[in-house]
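Session log. Operator J.P. requested a structure for one protein chain; no other inputs attached. Running the standard single-chain path with token output.
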Amino acid sequence: MIRYFVTVDGIIVERESPVPGGWISMTRPTASEIEFVADKYDIDPNDLRAPLDEEERSRIQIEDNYTAILVDIPAVEERNGTDWFVTLPLGIFTTDDVIITVCLQDSPVLSAFTDGRVRDHHTYKKTRFILQILYKNASLFLQYLRIIDKKSEIIEKNLHKSQKNKELIELLELEKSLVYFTTSLRGNEMVLEKLLKVNKIKKYPEDEDLLEDVIVENKQAIEMANIYSGILSGTMDAFASVISNNQNLVMKTLAAITIVMSIPNIIAGLYGMNVSGIPFANNPMAFAFVCIFTLAVILIATFILKKKDMF
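Structure written below.
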């Protein structure tokens, strides 16, 4: 899908065709849409397709007719009825006439602009528009990181009660999301640092301040991701130790029960042997005596095992 926008009197307006100073938003574009934009603005089609590869790395690419900026953005992916967090590439292309964005799916990063929820947004101010997109992206990372932290707390509370594999798998999924976020944020950091040195993208004093804000926001997101990842990893290790310890306690209790239950089997086996000289063999109260003796031995064994904390 391809949409065309332009800012008129401070308001974002959608057009039916591209206009100078406008913004072209491409979401999962078709081959024909890519060829159309590539021919119109003299952009290599392979560069336009690059953001459609989920494994594409963040970078800045400077060509004669355009500059390509690829960064990772956070996204929500539904699996088994639950929302999990991943990252996707976002391509931002600047030409003399327009700004072009290419992404695999609709993202809150761009919808904030298309819905007019970003103030002081002008499509013809290309550098500022790019920095506003990057700032919104870093802010969204922070927002999703807070959601991950809250979800991990809820799962941890459930894990205290159930200690089932489901909760551990959910914690593992959150840890994977944090790994994706950390890797993507570090890649974005390299792009932001390179933006400081790129002269082809003109930067005015207010743009310099905004770029510094973006870098600070991105660094904060990296620190939060590292902190949450460390906490989550420690939580998983702690609960793994708890589950292992509980398993050891169960095995110890079962071993003690096995010892106690083997006593009557041994005595019954001895008295079941068809040999002479068995005590109380001719006594009419032999069965009662054997039962009392067996019970006494069981009680003594239970007392000893209890003293050794086997129960």
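Operator note: The first strand starts at residue 2 and ends at 8.
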